[in-house]
């Protein structure tokens, strides 16, 4: 008999998590990317699985391993991430941690772009990527609980509150990603949890500790919703 078995408050709950950066192709050998390591998103997926959730992680290209006990789908671009997330609906909750590229090139070249004498560098025409969180936050199959992140370098709270409303999220995890903080790629995170009625300031924690606290918060809220 397991006397000290871990409580599994999220058992039977399907939760989608996005993590990592996205890569937006320029041509077959080049892409636009960002500094996201996937550490925070993967830690959240692992923490939710530890509480018993059926976690579906949609991960952009990262150098870290798939978390154990989590079904992981690998994607490259924002459009692929959006399609993978939509295919996983319906779900009880969704947590959007990925640093999705805001723009992609309008037409990725089919062949490697060559330098041409006297022509100069290519002008990349950019278009906006779909907002995956906003799409799910306003979806007809919206999960009971929708959590987003807000990566900011200034006016953190104001911007987080605006994102909460615009994207139809229940919580925004606001973090300051200014270079000094070293959040992107680093092992620690200092966040504020913004909801419609509240701002909860968490101390400076490891990304694993942030993940555990967030998983507990999600479990508590799914319980109050009593699905
Ligand atoms: N997000 C998303 N799809 C996008 C852009 C962002 O799902 N195309 C999600 C992120 O995963 C995060 C939240 O939206 O949970 C906020 O991302 P962020 O980059 O902070 O905000 P943006 O809306 O992209 O605005 P900006 O970058 O201009 O601040
Ligand atoms: Ca963005």
TrEMBL record:
Residues 15-227 are annotated as: Phosphopantothenate--cysteine ligase. Residues 10-220 form the DNA/pantothenate metabolism flavoprotein C-terminal domain. GO terms for molecular function: FMN binding; metal ion binding; phosphopantothenate--cysteine ligase activity; phosphopantothenoylcysteine decarboxylase activity. Binds 1 FMN per subunit. One of its GO terms (biological process) is coenzyme A biosynthetic process. It comes from the Bacteria. CTP binds at residues 102, 112, 130-133, 149, 163, 167. GO terms for cellular component: phosphopantothenoylcysteine decarboxylase complex. Keywords: Decarboxylase, Flavoprotein, FMN, Ligase, Lyase, Magnesium, Metal-binding, Multifunctional enzyme. It catalyses: (R)-4'-phosphopantothenate + L-cysteine + CTP = N-[(R)-4-phosphopantothenoyl]-L-cysteine + CMP + diphosphate + H(+); N-[(R)-4-phosphopantothenoyl]-L-cysteine + H(+) = (R)-4'-phosphopantetheine + CO2. Pathway: Cofactor biosynthesis; coenzyme A biosynthesis; CoA from (R)-pantothenate: step 2/5; Cofactor biosynthesis; coenzyme A biosynthesis; CoA from (R)-pantothenate: step 3/5. Its EC number is 4.1.1.36, 6.3.2.5. Transmembrane segments: none annotated. The keyword Transport does not apply. Its cofactor is FMN; Mg(2+). In the N-terminal section; belongs to the HFCD (homo-oligomeric flavin containing Cys decarboxylase) superfamily. Catalyzes two steps in the biosynthesis of coenzyme A. In the first step cysteine is conjugated to 4'-phosphopantothenate to form 4-phosphopantothenoylcysteine, in the latter compound is decarboxylated to form 4'-phosphopantotheine. Catalyzes two sequential steps in the biosynthesis of coenzyme A. In the first step cysteine is conjugated to 4'-phosphopantothenate to form 4-phosphopantothenoylcysteine. In the second step the latter compound is decarboxylated to form 4'-phosphopantotheine. This is Coenzyme A biosynthesis bifunctional protein CoaBC. It comes from Neomesorhizobium albiziae. The gene is coaBC. The chain holds residues 179 to 405 of 405 of the full protein.
């Amino acid at each position: 008999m397991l006397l000290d078995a871990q409580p599994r408050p999220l058992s039977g709950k399907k939760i989608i998590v996005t993590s990592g950066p996205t890569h937006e192709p320029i041509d077959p050998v080049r892409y636009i990317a960002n500094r996201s390591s996937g550490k925070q998103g993967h830690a959240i997926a692992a923490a939710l699985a530890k509480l018993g959730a059926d976690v579906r992680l949609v991960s952009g290209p990262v150098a870290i391993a798939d978390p154990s006990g989590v079904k992981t789908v690998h994607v490259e671009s924002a459009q692929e991430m959006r399609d993978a997330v939509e295919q996983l609906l319906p779900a009880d909750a969704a947590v959007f941690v990925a640093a999705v590229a805001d723009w992609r090139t309008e037409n990725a070249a089919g062949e490697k772009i060559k330098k041409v004498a006297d022509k100069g560098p290519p002008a990349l025409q950019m278009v906006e990527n779909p907002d995956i969180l906003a799409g799910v936050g306003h979806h007809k199959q919206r999960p009971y609980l929708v959590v987003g992140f807000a990566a900011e370098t200034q006016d953190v709270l104001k911007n987080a509150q605006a994102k909460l409303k615009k994207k139809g999220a229940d919580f925004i995890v606001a973090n300051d990603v200014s270079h000094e903080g070293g959040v992107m790629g680093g092992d620690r995170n200092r966040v504020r949890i913004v909801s419609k009625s509240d701002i909860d300031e968490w101390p400076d924690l490891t990304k694993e500790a942030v993940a555990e606290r967030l998983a507990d918060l999600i479990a508590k809220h799914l319980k109050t919703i009593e699905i």
